[in-house]
Amino acid sequence: MNHPLLTSDTMSLKGQKLLDKVKNDFIGLDTQYKTADGKHSKRIYLDTTASSLMMGIAHRASNEFLKHYANTHSLLHFSAKISTKTYNWIHSRILDFVHANPEEFTCFFMGSGVTAGMNRMAKTFQRLRPEKDIVLVSIMEHHSNDLPHRKHGGKVLHIPISNTSQNLGSIDLDIFEKYLLQFEGRINYVSITGLSNVTGIVTPINKIAKLAHKYGAYVIVDAAQMAAHVPIYMSGFEDKDMEIDALLFSGHKTYAPGSPGVIIARKSFMSAIEPEEVGGGMVDKVFPDNYFVSKKFPDREEAGTPNILGAITLGAAIHVLDSIGMERILKKDLEVTQYAVKKMQSYNDIFIYGEINNKDSMRAGTIAFNILDMDHGLVAAILNDYFNIAVRNECFCAHPYVEKMLHSTHEKEIEQLDCLDNHLNWKVEPWMGMVRASIGLYTTKEDIDILINALSSIIKNKNSLSAKYIINTDGDYQHKEFQFSSKDYFSLTATIDRDIIS
Fold first, then answer.
1. Which of 306, 323, 340 is the last residue of a domain?
2. What letter would DSSP give residue 282?
3. What is the pLDDT of residues 228-244, one digit of tens each?
4. Which of 85-99, 407-421, 487-501 comes out lowest in average pLDDT?
5. What's the Cα-to-Cα distance from 220 to each of 118, 135, 266, 277, rounded to whole Å?
6. Would you say the pTM of this structure is higher than 0.90?
7. 145 and 32, same domain (yes or no)
8. Which of 189, 232, 315, 422 is surrounded by the fewest CB atoms within 10 Å?
9. Cα–Cα distances in Å, from 3 out to 8, 370, 428?
10. Cβ neighbours of residue 207 under 8 Å, at least 6 residues apart?
11. C-alpha dihedral over 55, 57, 63, 67, to 10 degrees?
């Protein structure tokens, strides 16, 4: 817990009171389902890393805005003024949130997560320095921070992760610097996750930036997981080499489902080339045979009508998080995560992936694990069907990282596959994957206790519970008798029809 990010003076009593108020104000916390034993119980949502629940304050703020809804890019009528000015304010608020100097950085929206923005930035950096043909990413990256660079950025080299024991920790900075030195002059940029979506291990992004800049490489940070858990400082350092050149995050993972993906990047980079997408709102003049792109940020980077309502929701959520204080949020996340880790460690049958004892590998919000001698899909199905606990399983769009960590528990199985086709579908072998429990602001230690009690029950009743399931044609574990019908709980047409009739 003695991490420098936790020493800020911003952890005020006001922030704690706001956290206490907000943590119970999320849509879906009281949702109930009927489980395989015939009981109705409240869902325990431990799938925040995939997508967070909607913050109540943000939802109400967006509904209030709808009373004044109008398109942006106009100050002519009253509603347009409200919409345009609020939309512009959100961009500024996000720059404050990540501590990015507004004189040097711009914020703009693209897509519904990080993927679209990362494709955009890979193209941008390649066009900026086409003579540099190498991109460095780590082996632990989500596919959205790997595949775009393979397709658009150049030759991708994967930086290994430190191996302090049988588990993998954060990026190995010594090996990272060796890569930078070996390929100096050829590396265009480094793109690194701020927080692993598999293990929750936090990356020292500013240390990485300092090393990368020393060897002439730019730095992109995938903050899809980081933004909701860890304070971010893109600029403001005496040592400018510690600054981040571009950072992306997802609104739907930041308590604002339905909001756009966010890109924060240096204006000097973006203004050096024409935007990838063109259309209304990003030009100053258009003639039959020519057009002139606006020099104004963020307008030039956001062609067409934006996701205004989603941006409003995101801006509200970011404002609340910043008002609580990200240092305080990180402290709370670390406490709950460590509480869960310690509880799991008391069971010999539970294996936790990723370094858990190294003080340099801080873990926030996410735990990937397996129950020994049980497939991940089976454990996830039982947790859902019998205990109403929502977790995620499989490989979390991070196949290379997950496969490397599975050597700790499935070495024999992996060796048997070495001679097989590399195009083998991961679902062909049901052991290929992990279970992932992930927390949010709304997660309590009581939720963790329910998870641990459920895992304990599964361990004690492995055989009897396993006998109740089959693997269906999709490769998923399916209960032989219990069936869940989504229409019993939500149908879009039925919801609309009820409103029409009433």
1. 323
2. S
3. 999 999 999 999 999 99
4. 407-421
5. 9, 11, 11, 20
6. yes
7. no
8. 422
9. 11, 28, 42
10. 173, 242
11. -160
Amino acid identity of 152? H
Q: Which domain does 37 fall in, by range?
A: 4-49+325-488
Statement to judge: residues 377 and 455 lie in one domain: yes
What are the structure tokens assigned to 1, written together? Answer: 């817990």
Which pairs with CB-CB distance under 8 Å and at least 24 residues apart come from 243-246?
Answer: 243/206, 243/209, 244/205, 244/206, 244/209, 244/219, 244/220, 245/189, 245/209, 245/218, 245/219, 245/220, 245/269, 246/121, 246/218, 246/219, 246/220, 246/221
CA-CA distance, 108 to 121, in Å (whole number)?
A: 12
Considering its fold, how many domains does the chain have in total?
A: 2
Q: Give dist(CA 5, CA 116) in Å, integer.
A: 30
Instruction: Give the integer Cα–Cα distance in Å for 256 and 420.
Output: 43
Q: Could you identify the residue written with the tokens 């020099």?
A: 295
Angle at the Cα of 191 from the Cα atoms of 281 and 10, rounded to 5 degrees: 80
**Contact predicate 234/244, CB 8 Å:** yes
* Stretch among 135-139, 268-272, 400-404 having the lowest mean pLDDT: 400-404
Residues 65 and 38 in one domain: no
Q: Residue 204 and residue 200: Cα distance in Å, rounded?
A: 13
